[in-house]
Structures are given as C-alpha cells and as structure tokens.
C-alpha cells in the first residue's frame, strides 16, 4: 500500500513535470512563430512599404509630360520639417532621365482644389499608426481623361531616432511619387 502510494506520487510528479515541459515547449513555439511572423511581415513591407497590391490591369499614373500640382494640406498637422522632406522627395523626380517628363510642383495650402482635379495630388497627414504601410501610401485614380492622386502619411513617420526621420520621410515621399509616374 505504502509502496504503491510512493509509486503513484512519483508517477504523478513525472506527469506534472511532463506537463510543464510540454507547456514550455508550446510557449517557445508560440513566441518563436510570433517573431517569425513579425520578421516575415517586415520583409513584405520592406519590398513595398506603401501600397495595397496593384489593381489590375494597371495602376493609374500621370500621363507623360504632365505638370502635376501637389497640394500639401496645411490643416492636417504636418511639421515644417516634414513638409520640407515631402517636397524634396517628390520634386527629386523632376528633370530626371526617366522618360516620364512629369513635373511635380509642390505647394502647401489650406485652400485645396476639389478632390479629383486633373493632374493633382492632395497630401494629408493622418494622426494614427498604420500597421499595413511603412508610414505612407498613395492612391492613384484615372477617370476618363482625368488623373489624380491622394497621398497620406501616418504617425509612423514620427517613430524612431529624430535625426533619421527627415531622410526617412523624404525617401517614402519619393517612393510614393514614383507610383505616379511609372
Ligand atoms: Zn509603393
């Protein structure tokens, strides 16, 4: 009786240990797959930080030689540094040998043209974090002979070492501008 009690206790201790080991293994797997999925999603974003997958047959773009007025909405909360970076990034396409001959002319205004005005981009700041973009996105539209874009920047552009942020904003703005011409 006593012996069998000891044996039972031993075997129940063994099974408790087995449960703990199993739980630990599951926890490790869970944490591991979480990090893996983070890594994978970061990889996907690194390929194209801004965009929803292109809509077939082809995303809209400005016609060759278009003079595009880009209006940064002064009422959405951009800082002067962000405005400078966005302006630099977009206008860095101008005069480049890329066959588009599109010119981006950037102004800051609180007096925006109506949405959908031909050869315009309206740029606004959205004060929330975007988990599906790298911090910016552009939607290009083509309706009959009218082409226009809507560009948004999210709170992501304020996350990180402040000394790197202007370059980051310039880079993502340039990237988005590329979608308007190619
Ligand atoms: Zn993109």
- Over all CA atoms, what is the radius of gyration? 26 Å
* Gross morphology: globular
Q: Report low-confidence residues grouped into runs of 5 or more.
A: 1-10, 28-47
The second-level CATH architecture of the largest domain is 3-Layer(aba) Sandwich
For this entry, what is the oligomeric state of its chains? Answer: single chain
CATH class division of the largest domain? Alpha Beta
- Mean pLDDT over the full residue set: 81
Distance between the termini: 84 Å
Beta-strand fraction estimate: 15-25%
Question: Cofactors and ligands present?
Answer: zinc ion
Count of beta strands: 5
Order of helices and strands: HEHEEEEH
Secondary structure class reads alpha/beta
Strand order across the biggest sheet? 2-1-3-5-4
**What's the main sheet like?**
5 strands, mixed
> How many individual domains?
2
So how many helices? 3
- Helix-residue proportion: 40-55%
